[in-house]
Amino acid sequence: MMRLVLLLCLCPVLAASDEMRKVPYESLLGQPNRIETFDGVPSAVEPGLNFDRHWRAPGLSIGERLLGQSAAEADTGHGRFDRLRGLPGAPPRAVPGAPGQNLAVAYHDGFGSNALFPLGPEGYASASGRGEGSLAIVFDDPQFAFGLKLHAEYPDPLGQRPMPRAAQIAFYDAQARRLTRFVVPLRRGVMALAWRSGYGVTAITLENTDPGGIAIDDILYEVEDLAG
User: Which of 113, 137, 153, 227 could form a disulfide with 204 if both were Cys (CB 3.0 to 4.6 A apart)?
Assistant: First the structure.
């Protein structure tokens, strides 16, 4: 099993590498927080429910990209994926993609619950379009401790599925300045990812090159009414 390693890719614009550190997801569960589970809508097997607008939860918005960015298609040898281009405007704002190429929520066997699928260039109707898209998460309030769970591929004891590849995660402050960017090698099953930051993180973008696509669940973050 591949050991999860976070590699700093591209020098951070504002923060030194020690300002954004990976921590155990479970270590954040004891503090005031909210977890967005996507279980507030009916559970449906894939393709699930298509959302052509941004996803809104208390203290949180999710879309395809940040305002000011565009999503271009990257046609690779292992799939067609969204690639984000351009610089976001301030303050960060999540905006949806084209109809059928934004977001879907469906029951996910790996999580055992609803999960969010970013839709890629092949779109909602295609199995190869679900999970290959980009994702932008914007918090109402800057975050100093937050996390999410990501699923890239199911266990494959017979070795018939392609190996998981990588996700690229970028973090932005309230002025839409990029704080840092990580490349996360993916592995099979659920990966729980969490960070503490010396700077307040207002937005996250996530792209991937996984042949089977990714799904997201259990976004953990602070909201003002819980944090006091």
Answer: 137
